[in-house]
Amino acid sequence: MNRLLPRHSRHRLCPGTLTIMAPPDPMLAQIAALFDGFDVEKNRGGYTLVDRRNRKPIARLRRFVGTNRFELFYWSAVRDAWRTFGNFGRMRLPLEDAHQIVQRDPMFQIHRSRWSRLMSGYRRIFG
Question: Is the pLDDT of residue 7 over 60?
């Protein structure tokens, strides 16, 4: 008698199965230490800086292969995509320079300033 046997997916884990964890990323730790006011998430070949208060992405860093330099991106609401920072195309920035730009440039302050105005208005109305 022919009958179909249940197929087991290679991706489905049985209860109690341990998965192998990814090795720690020293660059992620270095970025998180430098950008201490942000949560840092590693995804899709780069590092996203997320505002801790409103969970909005503020900036993105992508490392140039074989160097300790990064390309800095900002979120464009017009294009609904990450755009490279700078007027002259891709800039190869040391991590410290990227940190100074994110801290000082008004482009990276937009989300944070809107959030603080919103919360101050909320506190004024609702106490």
Answer: no
Angle (nearest 5°) at CA 28 between 23 and 34 = 150
Residue of 109, 107, 86 lying closest to 38 (CA atoms):
109
Tens-place pLDDT, residues 16-44? 555 567 678 889 999 999 998 899 999 88
Q: How far apart are CA 48 and CA 67, in angstroms?
A: 19
Q: Looking up tokens 């937009």, which residue turns up?
A: 110
- Helix H or strand E segment including 41: strand 38-43
Under 8 Å between Cβ of 98 and 70: yes
Q: How far apart are CA 22 and CA 40, in angstroms?
A: 16
- pLDDT, position 112: 52
Say if CB 62 and CB 68 are below 8 A apart.
Answer: no
pLDDT at 123: 54
Contact between residue 96 and residue 34 where contact means Cβ atoms under 8 Å apart: yes
Total residue count of the chain as it appears in this document: 127
Report the alpha-carbon distance of residue 73 to residue 86 in Å, rounded.
Answer: 9
